[in-house]
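Q: Joint fold for the lines below.
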Amino acid sequence: MSVDRRDPKPQTLLRVPLALGKIGLLTLPDDAATYVTRVHRLGVGDRFLAFDPGQAIEADAEIVALSRKGATARIDATRPASRRPTRRVTLLQGSCKGDKMDAIVRDATELGATTIIPVITERSIARPDAARADRWRRIAVEAARQCGRGDVPRVEEPVALAALLARSRAPEVIAICLDPRAERALGAALAGIAGDREVSFLVGPEGGLSDEEIAEATRAGYAPARLGSLVLRTETVCAAVLGGLLLTSVS
Amino acid sequence: MSVDRRDPKPQTLLRVPLALGKIGLLTLPDDAATYVTRVHRLGVGDRFLAFDPGQAIEADAEIVALSRKGATARIDATRPASRRPTRRVTLLQGSCKGDKMDAIVRDATELGATTIIPVITERSIARPDAARADRWRRIAVEAARQCGRGDVPRVEEPVALAALLARSRAPEVIAICLDPRAERALGAALAGIAGDREVSFLVGPEGGLSDEEIAEATRAGYAPARLGSLVLRTETVCAAVLGGLLLTSVS
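A: Joint structure:
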């Protein structure tokens, strides 16, 4: 685990990712035991915060025993995860090759996406099946554990673009279609939008969305916008856009 | 080349990356010939814009001959590159493992960094030598060609953090040290800053900057700030921060 190797601030409990079950004693898995006792040098009687992004819950915990073989902690009652995104953001990602999609799921989890939907488009080379979503769900849980996020984005099964555009959307959601040739800058498209307003981003696959697809998305209410004036690789767009949303937040 | 497979808008010339030399006839390399004649179906008499990020120059060009073997273009006089970042941004990247640093140089080039300086810190596992910078310069040129950027970021040789902090900085440059535990959000740190004001970002390596290094950077004038509340991987920070800067621009 390479999350935060520094000692926590005195007032902040160390966050430790754990699979949480019932209240009571838990023998820590080796990686968690090393993280807690070696990296952060917690001892018997020290408290930490156990979090389980897969279930979006957390619990207070206290180390009650240490031995050469490992560490045991007492886990208190669980409660809903505290550290989760304040804004709902949906990433509609044009399906791209496996390793790129894996990296995008990781980035999206770290940078606060709340829903990820792989979208099969005209130029999508990869056409993942529903089972593939399970892999991305596991990647999202691992990314959340590493970055300290208390929940995970919902990863939906892949959907064809036409089917996605036919779905009804809540009118309060800001829907954007990223297009490097759009006249409008994304910053202008989002200017004045409240910081907690839900946003959906449609991002093309490696070869981009076709002109026809952009026109269809526009008719379905997705406003075309570009980030800068260059043609970004699809695997760069997610981190850049979600980072941008985080930056526009001042808290 | 996977830059933009769609036909250019009528008023926008197709941008084609080429190594530009003297005025006159140029036999296009195979990849450029395929891109121009097959992907975009340009023919004899059609014009395009040739750009050479390595030299930060561009030139008008016209296809004058096509054969089975390839394409020949007439290249007009070169001029300084037109499509380059409007804001000066320096990425001071804590040195991390080779493939991550390669990916960061690619992201930084696409997202408008103008200078990249690898910084050797306490927790840097990789300690690249000066020759390594040549590799990153080549990666930057290739990334610029792919995304249509007219110039490349300057990639400096690796420097130790202490030596970097001892350098004098122009007082008008906003200097930020990314720290996931900073009280201040990056959005707050940059609020009200003019869109063309120069910014420098110091980003830690895989294990982050140590508390002492953050204190030293703070004394040297780098304001600690965080992007969101999670612990980002070092290879995510660059794209998220630079994307954020692009998003705060409305043009």
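Q: Anything notable?
A: Residues 89-248 of chain A form a domain with the Alpha/beta knot fold (CATH 3.40.1280.10). The two ends of chain A are 27 Å apart (CA to CA).
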